[in-house]
Write a structure and sequence with these properties.
elongated; 7-stranded mixed sheet; mainly beta; 4-stranded antiparallel sheet
Length: about 400
């Protein structure tokens, strides 16, 4: 007996023509210097067309896995991380079960026919219970232009209406998805907000004329490429922030002027960040401590930005919730400024690895700030810097 899945699939994805959607240009494939000998791609060529579907399969969000007793899917990814402008490569393992063996009083196993097998790369933004699919790329492995392998299709029952009757077998189908240079925000995970990418394969089939769906999904890490000549180049004019703090001490006015400046706005996680600090101490007490803090702020929006044909509308939104955390602290060692003097020094702060800035999407955005804090016996002062950090 075959078991069908009651999980609904978007009707707009059914029986769409092969050439629907916008094609993503391919910029070549990745090759490994140690992979030699016959490969799965030499046995069956991976379809080279990657397209953006007109109907986004948002049901992947709620139903990433759809099992079936007659069809088993497995995804093999060729690398742990992929970059924008390259390709996501791998293979889909397809196992077809012949069903229960016929016995006395039992009819023959139901006839299994495969219509289409599609691989999709999707990006999902999640904030609490709200979820949104912001990108989707697809390629067809089996359709009217790519029939199933010979060892899988039954030769005695040719295809009819682009349905291939399949027999018990194990098949490997290679795939390749071309990625645009600007794919989207990087993967991010916090307690309530997430951005993730998944590779999902969907098999559409029929068992005795009744349509079934089988799906398998796995997470993958995809990053957008940043141009180092634009992102990491020093600014022509450094970013400088100045703050002046005054306090009354024993009937006199004590003043401390704190100035901090950075030479670029984007820093790489896993490497140090440098800031020039200048202190003018016009008080009577010495400045004893300079502390740098790396602060992460997650801005959460209650309402999504308006959607346009080109993406989210460029509108000013005020966040409803701002979650702040101090990621890392560092003290500028051995530096004191006595009263009536001024001094300057370059201080460093290590940026932990795995930190990324996320531009405001539908639900949330992530920014990093550099806090410069000085401590005097009668007051303390703090400066805030907007310091994006990327992998």
């Amino acid at each position: 007996m075959s078991r069908t899945s009651p999980i609904p699939i978007m009707p707009s994805l059914i029986s769409l023509p092969h050439d629907y959607g916008k094609t993503v240009p391919s910029r070549g494939r990745s090759t490994s210097p140690i992979r030699s000998g016959p490969s799965i791609e030499q046995l069956r060529r991976a379809p080279s067309r990657t397209f953006v579907p007109l109907a986004i399969p948002i049901d992947i969000i709620d139903f990433p896995q759809i099992p079936h007793s007659r069809i088993a899917l497995d995804i093999q990814i060729s690398a742990p991380i992929f970059m924008g402008g390259a390709t996501v490569e791998g293979a889909v393992g397809l196992t077809v079960d012949g069903g229960s063996m016929p016995s006395r009083g039992r009819r023959k196993p139901a006839v299994l026919s495969i219509d289409r097998i599609t691989v999709a790369l999707v990006g999902i933004e999640q904030s609490g219970a709200r979820q949104h699919m912001f990108t989707c790329l697809m390629t067809d492995l089996i359709d009217e232009a790519h029939p199933p392998p010979i060892q899988m299709a039954r030769p005695d029952q040719p295809a009819s209406d682009w349905l291939w009757v399949v027999m018990p077998s194990k098949t490997t189908l290679p795939f390749r998805l071309a990625l645009p240079v600007m794919l989207g925000p990087p993967p991010f995970r916090s307690k309530k907000n997430n951005i993730k990418y998944m590779v999902s394969v969907l098999a559409e089939a029929k068992v005795d004329g009744k349509r079934i769906y089988v799906r398998k999904s796995e997470g993958v890490m995809v990053l957008t490429v940043h141009d180092p000549e634009k992102a990491l180049v020093n600014l022509s004019n450094p970013l400088v922030v100045t703050d002046e703090i005054q306090s009354s001490h024993r009937g006199s006015l004590e003043t401390v002027i704190l100035t901090a400046g950075v030479h670029r706005q984007t820093w790489i996680s896993g490497y140090p960040l440098f800031v020039d600090v200048r202190i003018q101490n016009r008080g009577s007490k010495a400045m004893r401590r300079v502390e740098l803090q790396l602060e992460r702020s997650i801005f959460v929006y209650a309402y999504a930005a308006p959607s346009l044909d080109r993406g989210l509308g460029d509108t000013l939104r005020l966040p409803d919730i701002c979650e702040k955390d101090i990621i890392y602290k560092a003290i500028c060692p051995g530096w004191q400024v006595a009263g009536g003097l001024h001094d300057q020094k370059t201080c460093g702060l290590f940026v932990p690895s795995g930190l990324v800035s996320v531009d405001a999407g539908r639900f949330f955005g992530v920014r990093f700030f550099l806090n410069v804090r000085i401590t005097v016996s009668f007051l303390y002062a703090m400066l805030l810097y907007d310091v994006p950090s990327t992998d």
